[in-house]
């Protein structure tokens, strides 16, 4: 898709009926949704992951099956320690399952070497963390342009795309700032821009609002909803039932297993909030 078109449209003030926000045209998800509704963006089958620990092994994932269709916005909820980050990291290619099969954008991700996984992470997934993980001392523009250049884009094109993303995410006047002078919400928007720079099939976010005040959290959630409206597939880990209610589907975990899923089979449950969201899951954000 053409980001230039997107920017000029935005500048001309193209508005979307309803929420009045400029329509984002920075994802490849929309075409995917129109052309491949049935395509699976994320698929886990019998995924198990055990960590060695001093006293006894920790069985973080005890057999997880999950399908996320292209274009879905899924919130993954559950109490601290239930395995949410472990599952997200396995989809992200940051960790590997001990058993089971994992597919992202129809690509086999299990049983791969680190070299393959590094390329996979660069091109197929965008990853957003609770504490942003930005390059400190490097401008906002370069925080976004560098991964694009690593992804094979020429510097000029990478900088153009970085500027477009910063514009669209409301940071157009912050291109030369370093992360430390930005607010938490701005830093997280910067991290989201970075995650989107190589047009990932899936945006994977681990507690993206967990380090923000409620206003900052609402802002990030609204941004995710815009991206979802543009067709971006999103898997978002959250402790908060309020945050989860912004998603189109809520999946709940406990003790390394999926215990609830409000998927209606169509992947378009726009009510978002699962019946009886587990109040235990709505604990304060943890750093784990
Ligand atoms: N690298 C690791 N080494 C040892 N134990 C880990 C590691 N990562 C996670 N765990 C343990 O696995 C369980 C699941 O962790 P995690 O997936 O981070 O949970 P959540 O994100 O739901 O809070 C926890 O008991 C945690 O302590
Ligand atoms: Mg976690």
TrEMBL record:
InterPro entries: AAA+_ATPase, ABC_transporter-like_ATP-bd, ABC_transporter-like_CS, ABC_transpr_LolD-like, MacB-like_ATP-bd, P-loop_NTPase
Domain ABC transporter: 42-280
Keyword ATP-binding assigned: yes
UniProt keyword terms in alphabetical order: ATP-binding, Nucleotide-binding, Transport
SMART domains assigned: AAA (SM00382)
Superkingdom, taxonomy of origin: Bacteria
Comp. bias intervals (Basic residues): 1-18
Pfam short name (any one): ABC_tran
Chain intervals for the UniProt region annotation (Disordered): 1-20, 257-288
GO CC aspect terms: membrane protein complex; plasma membrane
Gene Ontology molecular-function annotations: ATP binding; ATP hydrolysis activity; transmembrane transporter activity
SUPFAM superfamilies xref list: P-loop containing nucleoside triphosphate hydrolases
Protein's recorded name: ABC transporter ATP-binding protein
């Amino acid at each position: 898709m053409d980001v230039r078109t997107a920017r000029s449209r935005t500048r001309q003030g193209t508005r979307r009926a309803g929420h009045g926000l400029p329509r984002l045209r920075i994802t490849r998800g929309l075409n995917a949704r129109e052309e491949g509704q049935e395509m699976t963006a994320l698929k886990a089958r019998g995924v198990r992951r055990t960590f060695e620990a001093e006293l006894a092994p920790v069985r973080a994932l005890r057999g997880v099956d999950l399908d996320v269709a292209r274009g879905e916005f899924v919130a993954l909820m559950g109490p601290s320690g239930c395995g949410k980050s472990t599952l997200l990291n396995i989809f992200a290619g940051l960790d590997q399952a001990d058993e089971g099969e994992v597919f992202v954008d129809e690509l086999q991700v299990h049983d791969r070497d680190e070299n393959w996984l590094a390329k996979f992470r660069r091109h197929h997934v965008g990853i957003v963390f609770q504490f942003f993980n930005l390059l400190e001392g490097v401008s906002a523009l370069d925080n976004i342009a560098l991964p694009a250049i690593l992804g094979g884009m020429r510097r000029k094109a990478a900088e153009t795309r970085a500027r477009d993303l910063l514009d669209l995410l409301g940071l157009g006047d912050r291109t030369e700032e370093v992360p430390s002078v930005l607010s938490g919400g701005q830093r997280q928007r910067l991290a989201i821009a970075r995650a989107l720079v190589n047009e990932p099939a899936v945006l994977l976010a681990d507690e993206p609002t967990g380090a923000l005040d409620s206003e900052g959290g609402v802002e990030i959630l609204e941004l995710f909803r815009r991206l979802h409206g543009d067709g971006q597939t999103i898997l978002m880990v959250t402790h908060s039932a309020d945050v989860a209610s912004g998603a189109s589907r809520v999946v709940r975990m406990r003790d390394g297993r999926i215990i609830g899923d409000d998927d209606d089979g169509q992947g378009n449950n726009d009510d978002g909030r699962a019946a009886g969201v587990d109040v235990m899951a709505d604990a304060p954000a943890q750093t784990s």
